[in-house]
Amino acid sequence: MIASSREETLSSATTGPKISSWTMGAMVIWRWTGYNALIHLAAMQTIPRERYEAARTDGANGFQLFRHITVPALRPVIIFTVVISTIQGLQLFAEPLLFDPTPGGVTGGSDRQFQTLTVYLYEQGFRQFDFGYASTIAWVMFLVIVIASAVNHLITRRIRSSR
Question: Which of 60, 96, 97, 100 is the S-S candidate for 64 at Cβ 3.0 to 4.6 Å?
Fold first, then answer.
């Protein structure tokens, strides 16, 4: 009886709407924070120290250094990580499946509250066997990713040409 009450407590804790939303967010943040931080750190190390020294000599404080030197130098990297994070968000698959109430389920939570486009694609193609609709979803996802990448390219080119 103790084991079943413990299982019920764990089940309600992981499928409740508030705690499951926080848990899902924490998992996604944990997964991508290190990757993005490493990219930003590498980009920050390429900023010449002479820029900071010259700005300090001119009397700039820490916030002004950040606003006028660091952010403009990191702008292409920020755009890159935003686009990559958007693509990864569209392709999110494993995390929503952890919240399915039935083993082997592909609904993205008890009320489909975490159903991403990729989970929906998988459900339509391999659970409903509607391969035509699933391939349409895949093409739409591909087009969204291509458009996001094209916007990234255009913005990055515009930033580089304005320097």
Answer: 60
- Whether the Cβ atoms of residue 55 and residue 68 lie closer than 8 Å to each other: yes
- Residue 54 in tokens: 């010259």
Residue with tokens 């304005």: 162
- pTM score, whole prediction: 0.71
pLDDT in tens, 103-123: 777 888 778 888 888 999 999
Closest CA to 110 of 100, 119, 98: 100
Q: Which residue type occupies 140?
A: V
Give the SS3 label for residue 102: coil
Cβ-based neighbours of 24, under 8 Å, separated by 6 or more: 95, 96, 99, 114
